[in-house]
Known about the structure:
- By secondary structure, the chain is an alpha+beta fold.
- Helix content is 16%, strand content 28%.
- The strands form 12 sheets. Strands 33, 34, 35, 36, 37, 38, 39, 40, 41 and 42 form a 10-stranded mixed β-sheet that branches. A 9-stranded mixed β-sheet has the order 9-8-10-11-5-12-17-16-15, sandwiched between helices. Strands 43, 44, 46, 47, 48, 49 and 50 form a 7-stranded antiparallel β-sheet that branches.
- Helix 4 packs parallel to helix 5 (255-266) and helix 7 crosses helix 9.
Amino acid sequence: AIRRVLGPPLPAARAPARQARPALVRPHVAMPSPMEDRMGQMVEGKGEGKGEGKGFKGDFKGGKGFKGDGKGFKGGFKGDGKGFKGDGKGFKGESKGFKGEGKGKGEDGAMVAFDKGKGKGKFKGGGQMQVQERIVYQRQSRNAGIHTIEIYSPQFWFEQTEMEEFDARPDRYGPSVIGKYTKGIGQIQARFCTDDEDPVSFVMTVCHRLLERMEEKGFNETGRYQPDGIPLGIYHSIGRIDVGTESIIDRSKSMKSYLMDIFERYGDGEANIEGVDQYNACYGGQACGLAVVSWVESDRWDGRYGIAIATDISEAHPFFIAFVGAATTAALMFPDAPMAHHSQRASAILHRLDFCKPVGWHDMAPVTDGKYSVECYLDALDSCYATLRKKVNDRELFQITDYNAFHTGGGYHIVKKAFERLLRNERPECRGAERDALTEARLHPSCHILKRVGPCHTVSSFLNTASVAMSKMEQALGKVLMVFTYGSGCASSMYQLRFDDIPYFDPLEIWYLKRFYRDSIKIQPEQAVLHQPYVETWMKFEYKPYGRQKYGFDPETLEDDVYYLGEIDKFGRRFYHRGGLKTLPIDNKYKLPVDVAEGRPNRKHWGPMHEKPPEKEKTAEDVRRQIEYDMTFDHAAEEQAYMEIADLTDTYRRDQKVKILKPLPDSKPQGTTIEPDGLPHTYHIVGTWNRRKPQEMRQNSDGSWSFEFTLGDNRWEEFYLMQDNDPAKRIYPHVEKGNKDAVAVGPHDGGVSHFWLLDCRDRVDVPEDQTGMPGDKYLVTFRWKKFKELTWLKLEGEVGEAEPGQYFIAGSWTDFELVEMLPDSKRRRGWYSTEVQMTSLGLEFKLLRNEDYTQVIYPVPPKRGDRTASQTSAIAGPDPLGKTSWKVDGVLGGVYRISFFRDPEDCEPASMRVEWTKVDDRPVKELDPTFYLIGPFNDWGEKGMNKMRHPPGNLSVFTGEVTVEEMALDEKAPDKKKVLMPFKMVQHKMPTRCVHPDKDKCTQLMEHKVLMDDKGKDLSWLIGGHPADKAKKGDVFTVKLQIAPGGEMTVSWAKS
C-alpha cells in the first residue's frame, strides 16, 4: 500500500458508480512526491535513550535540535517533534541518511529511514530507529514527445476549382479569379462548419475520439510507470490537458473546463487533470504543445499522458468563403515517443499590431493588416532561425533536418514562401530544379491535409506535423522534422521532432477513407452560405442552431461521435450533446447531480427525438435498376480500372498489409443502369434454331421489334439480342435460362452465359399455351420505353420447316475434336453413325448437336462420380451439363461402328439410343502424341486447352507459352498476391494422361520426378515460385517438355 508521508492519508478509493472498468486497469492513485521518494514516515516518540547514530551528512554542532513544527521540510513534521529534543550533538558526522541503534525507555515511537550512512554521535530523545531499503518508482521521462495526433474537421467541404468558377461570375469577382485559389494560394478543398459546431464542440469531439481510439487500439502505456505495472483506466490515464485557440467563446470560462465534462461523466468523477487554455492568435495551440511536453519532462510529471489540443475556425463571410477553414487536433504526449522532441528550440515573442480581435469588436473576424502580417511572420521566422542555429553551434539547419513544417497563414502559398525564405538563408545559390526537388522532398509531405482543410489558425502546425507522419510512415524513421509555428501579435517558435518509431497513425490514404471523407458532405459553392449562421453566432444569447434545418440537411447526416451545440442560454452558457439531434438523451448512468443543480438543458429540450426515416419500399423500377446495375458491374474490369498507389503495413496490426488503389483517369465506370439514348438503332436476335447466326428483327409501328422462328427438334430454343448487330451490345436476361419475366439487361458486353430459354416441352413449369412440337412457330417481341421488356407467344395454327439438326462426335481418337456423324442410309430416319479404330488411347466419346457445347448428349453413369459409362446407361441432353463419356471396351486394332438414334417424332431423351458393334480388325495405327497446357489461364482446361507445338518430324520436344500474372495461391489469403503461374499438361486432352510433378508448387530447380497418370489433380509446376525465374507481371515464359528415347520426361521453362 502507498501512503502519503507528509500529510493526511488519502481517502479510500470509491467504488465505480457508473462504468465497470476492464480487468487489470485501475484508477489513478497519487504517486509519492520527489521528497516522499527520499523520506520515510515519522511518528511521535517519547522517552530517554542513548546510543550510536550515524546521522545527517554535514555538521550539526550546537543548537537546540529539531524542536518545532519542522517547516523546513516539505510537508512538515506533524506533531511537536518531541522525539528530537536535545542538544543536537548526536548529529555530527557524515552520512547519506539515518542509521543507528538506540536504547532507552519510551513509548512505541519509531523512526524509519530509507538510506544508509556513516557517522558517529549520540542520539537523545528516545524511541527506536529501524533501517529499511529505499523504494523508488522509476518515472524518469526520456524522449518525451508525440505518440499520435487525433484530427477532426467538420463535414462540409467544397472543391476550390468549383469555387473559382462560382466566384468568376459577373456578380462576384469576375473571370480574374480563375486559378487564384488553386494555383495562386495552392488549395484543393476547404472545410467549414455551420452554427451547430464551435471551437468547444471541436475540442470535446477530438478528445473523446482520441480516448476511444486509445482504448480500441490498446496503446495505453501508463502501466510502465505504475507500481503494480497495471495501466490506468483510459479516463484516468490523462494527467494534463491544455487547450489552445484564438477563437474563444468566453473571456473567463476555459474551453478545457467544458472538456472536463467527459472525464467527470465517463471517468467516475475524474478531475485531477492539470491545465487550462492558452490564448494567442495562431500560436495558442503550439503554446499548449510546448507546455505539455515540458510537463512530461518535469519532476512534477505523475506517469500519465498529456494532451495538447488546438482548436480554431477560420470563419469567412459569403464573399470570402474560399478562405474558410476549420479543424482541431489533439496531440498525445508521453515519454519514449515515436516523434520525440529533439535537440534545441527557439522562440521569438514580439509586440506587433498586425492582427487583433479587440474586446467588443462587432464581428467575429479580426482587425488585420494582411501584408504587414506576412512581414511579421517572415521576421519571426528569421529570428527563430538565427537563434536556433546559434544554439546548435552554427550548424546549417538543412543539414540536421529532413522535413519542414510551417504555420499555415492563409494557405499553402504562405508555407511555400516561408520554406523558400529559409532556403535562401542557408543556400542562397539554390535555384530552379534543385529548389523544386528540395521543396518536393522536404516541404510537400507536410502540406497534404492543409490543402484539403484550408487555414485553421492555431491548429495548422499540428496538422502539418501529422501530414508528414501519415504520408511518410516507415520512410521517416531516423529522420528529423523541423517545425516553425507562428501567431500574429506576435509569438513564434521553432523546434525539432525526431522519428524514433512509427507513430500511432493510419497511413494518409487510409485515414482519408476511414476518417476524413467517411461521413463528409460535399457541397456546391452556392451552398456555402450554410457557413453564415455560424458567423452570426458572435455575441448571441438565447440561441439554438438552425443552419442545417434551414438549408435542407437532415439530422441523419449528423455524426454519432461528434459533439454539437444544442443551445446558448440567456447567460451565454453553452450546452452540447454528442450526436446532436440525431441521438437519444445521455444514458442515466452518465448523468451527474450538477446537471440538475445547475438546471442544465439537455437533449430533450432541443426538439423531438429524431427517428430514422423508414427505408423506402423499392418499386418495380427500383428493382429493375438495381438488378441491371449489379449485372453490368464487371468485377474483373473494375480491378483493372485502378492503379496501386500504396502497399502499407497497418499501424496497429503490423502483420496486416493494406493496399490503396486509385481509379485510373480513363477507366470505364462499372455498374450502370442503361437508359435509352434516343438515337435510331437496329436489333438482331441470336438463337439456337439456326446455329446462333444473327438475324435482324422487324420494327413495328408502335416502336417495338419482333421476330418469328420455327421450333426445332429439341422442343426448346435459347437466344439473346444485339443492338446494331454489335456483339459488345448484348441484351440478355439477368439470370441464366431466363423466362419472359426476367429483367432485360444491356446493351452491354457481359452476360455471355445468359440466354432467354423458350421451353416448349411438356413440363410442370411450362405454361400450357407455350408447349409445342417441332415445326410450330413463335413470335418474340422486344420493347424499350421506360423499361426493356421481352415477351413471346405461340402463333397458333402456324407451322414452318424447322432446320434439321446435325450431330457430331467428340472422341479420344481425335483429341476430342468434333467430327460429324452422317445419316445411316441403311437404317430408318434418325440414325447417324461413324467408324473408329481402337488404339492404346481407348475409345471414349460424347455427342453434340450443331457443334454447340450447350447441346451435349451424354450418358448417365449408374454410379455417381463415374466418369464413363456403357451403352446400356440412360441418356441425357442436349444440355451444357455433359461431363461424362461413353467408353467402348474392345481389343486393339478392332474397328467399331458407333451409332446414334434420335426419333424425329419423339424428342425426349428416353427415345435416344447409342450403340456400337465391332465390324473389323486392322493393324493398329497409333496416333502421334499431342500435349496441351492447362492452368488458371484456361480454368484448368474447362475453357479449352493450349496445344503445344513440336518441330516438324520431331516428337520428342514440345513447347508452349504461359503468361505470368499477379495471383493468390492461397484461397484463404486472397490479398496476398505474387507474380506467378501454376500449370500442368495433359496428353490427348485425356484426364487419365495428366503430366505433372511428384510435388505441388514445384519449381524447375527442385529435384522431382515427372509423372503421367490420373493422380495429378493437386500437383503442378509453378513459374515464379523461385527468385531465379525473375518473373514480372505480364512476362511470357516458354515451357518445354522433352521426352527421352526411354520415355522419361523433363520439364523446364525460360522467359520468351
